[in-house]
Amino acid sequence: MPKILSQEEIDALLTTVTTAQSDADAPSTPHEPKRSSIIAYDFKHPNRVSKDQVRTLENMHDSFAGHVSSTLSAMLRTMVDVDLVSVDQINYSEYVMSLVSPSCSYIFSAEPLEGMCVIDFNPTLTFSFIDRMFGGGEKLMEIERELTGIEKTVMARIVRKVYGDLEESWSNMVPIKIEQKAFETNPQFVQIIPAGETVIVVSLQMKMFKTTGLMTICYPYVSLEPVLPQLSAQNWIDATKKKNLQDGHESSRENLMDIEVDLNLSLAQTCLKMREFMKLKVGDIVATETRIDSAAELAVAGKKKFICQPGLFGKRRAGQILKLYPIISKE
Fold first, then answer.
1. d(CA 105, CA 107)
2. For residues 60 and 65, what is the distance between their CA atoms, to the nearest angstrom?
3. 107, 269, 97: which is closest to 180 by C-alpha?
4. Which of 119, 157, 288, 317 could tie 268 with a disulfide, CB 3.0–4.6 Å?
C-alpha cells in the first residue's frame, strides 16, 4: 500500500525543489569557465562568400536591373519592370533542378572570370518577349515547347543587349568581356561544373504586361574566387564615386562642346604715329619686327591661352598649337 505524505512532508519537498532551481538560475562565478558559443554550420550549403561580398553583388546587380529594364523597354516598346529578388549560395545541382524544362539557358564566358556562367530565362517570359518583338500585345503566353530557329534568332538579339548591360554593371569593379558559348533547352545538359560545387545565383523578376517570370544568372564560386577580394563594400563605394566623377567630367565636356567662343590669332604687332596712320592707303606695306616664321599668340574669348604656328590647312588659314601661353605670376 503506497505511503500518503503529510502536509509537512509536501511543504519540505516543495522547498527543496525551489532551492535547487534558484541555484541553477544563479549566475556563474568569475572562477567558472565561460561556455563557448556554438554556431550551426550547414556542410551541405556552405557560405563561401562573405556577407559583405554578397551585399556588393546585390548592389551591382540592382544597378544591372535598372539598366536592363531601360534597355528592354526601349527594345520591346513597352514598359518592362526588372527587380532584384535575391543573391543565394546553393549547390549547382539545386540550381539545375530549379530550371524549367524546356528551358532557355545561355552559357557564356566572362573574362577575366574563370570557367563558364549561365543565364536562364523563364519560358513564359521568353515567349512573351518573342511575341512582343513580332507586334503582339498583352496576351499571356503559356507555351511549353522548345524555341524554333527564328525564335532563337530573335531571342539572341535580346540576350546580346542583356550581355552589354551586364558588362556595364561589372565595369566599376572588374571589367569583364562576355562571349556566348552555347544555348541549351534541357537543363540536364547545362553541366558547367560538378553537381556538388557551390554557385552564386542572382534572381531577377521581370514583368511585362500581365506576364511575370524570373531571369537567373549563375556564377560558379570557382569563377568568382579570383576576384572576390575586389568585391568589397568599400571598393564598391570608391568605384561608384569615381564613376560619378567621370560621368560629371564627361557631361561637362559635352556641354562645353556646344559653347561658341571667339578665337583671335595675333600674327604681328607694331607701333605707328597718328600722322603715319592717317596717311595709310590701300596697297601700303606696314613693316613689323616679327619674323615670318615666328610663333603667334592665340587668344580665347579675349584671353591669351596658346602659342601657335600660323599656316594653312587645305585652303583655310589655321594655327598649329605648340604650347600653352606662359602664365606670369603677379608676385
1. 7
2. 9
3. 107
4. 288
Q: Kindly report the length of the chain.
A: 331
Residue 123: Cβ within 10 Å count = 23
**Hey, what amino acid is at 177?**
K
Give pLDDT tens digits for 102-161.
889 999 999 988 889 999 999 888 988 998 888 877 777 677 788 889 999 999 999 999
Alpha-carbon distance of 141 to 128, in angstroms, equals 6
Question: In 291-305, which positions are buried (b, 16+ CB within 10 angstroms) versus exposed (e)?
Answer: eeeebbbbeeeeeee
Distance (Å, rounded) from C-alpha 296 to C-alpha 16? Answer: 109
Residue 32 phi/psi, 5° resolution? Answer: -80, 140
Name all domains of the chain by residue range, CATH numbers in brackets.
Answer: 51-249 (3.40.1550.10), 263-324 (2.30.330.10)
Mean pLDDT over all residues of the chain?
Answer: 82
Phi, psi of 315, deg, nearest 5: -105, 10
Helix (H, G, I), strand (E, B) or coil at 261: coil
Which residue's entry shows cell 601661353? Answer: 325
pTM: 0.62
**22 grid coordinates:** 534558484
Tell me how far CA of residue 223 lies from CA of 34, 86, 112, 167, 180, in angstroms. Answer: 42, 19, 9, 16, 16
Indicate whether 63 pLDDT > 70. yes
Helix H or strand E segment including 23: helix 7-25
